[in-house]
Amino acid sequence: xVGTLSLxxxxxxxxxxxxxxxxxxxxxxxxxxxxxxxxxxxxxxxxLGWQDIKQRYRRSVIGPLWITISMAVTxxxxxxxxxxLFGQPLAExxxxxxxGFIVWGFIGNCxxxxxxxxxxxxxxxxxxxxxxxxxxxxxxxxQVLFFAHNLVVYxxxxxxxxxxxxxxxxLAIPAFALIAVNGAWVILVVGTISTRFRDIPPVTQSxxxxxxxxxxxxxxxxxxxxxxxxxxxxxxxxxEINPFMHFLEIIRQPMLGSPIAWHHWLVCGAITVVGxxxxxxxxxxxxxxxxxxx
Length: 294
Known about the structure:
mainly alpha; 0% strand; ABC-type transporter activity; transmembrane helix; cell membrane; transmembrane
């Protein structure tokens, strides 16, 4: 009799649909739901991101304006130096350097801060039942606010050293949106790996510092590519291997009124597709483990 009841119970268990709690944590549905729920809680991550900036400059007289001032001082000092070293007019090199620094600040901070996005939010992750993507959007929003503050330097330089701009300047808007979308998957992937392996954050910081010198920020790629020495011009083309260069150029070219090289957009588009495919795999497989790793 007991065996019959056990058999009936087992059969009924197999026939009924699985409960939501019984679905494997490695679920594509849960991965997309995590992103969808995080986007829906816009007020939460937007408020947290703004509070991060306010907390950083708490009790400061001018507050977040220090972001703009520090960027202006750095760009001016390096612009005066490198314009003389490379023999370029200050009116051309200073805006070029400024846009490069502003965009690189966003990209570099997404990678560096992204490596600790979950580690630094250990308390919230353990106490607040929220999607993992909340912390990614919080960090991304904070970097967008930093970018907006630094953008003031660009407009000041545009007033001091006027550049002929055309309708292509509007391409800077989708270009920055594309950079931000890539910043999100970078934060998610690097943050998840760094949470599991705590030796990764120092490695990412070293890589970002190295890539800063290998990316045309303080030096002009077009100047080296058009060098009369064919050996130098040929080696300059190796910069195309650097993916950071393509993201930098899709926004710097329209902001400076330079001709648009569309192959940069194609490379960035391909990186976006591949990067988000990797991010979704990471989110599907390891989303549920983040709270245990922190």
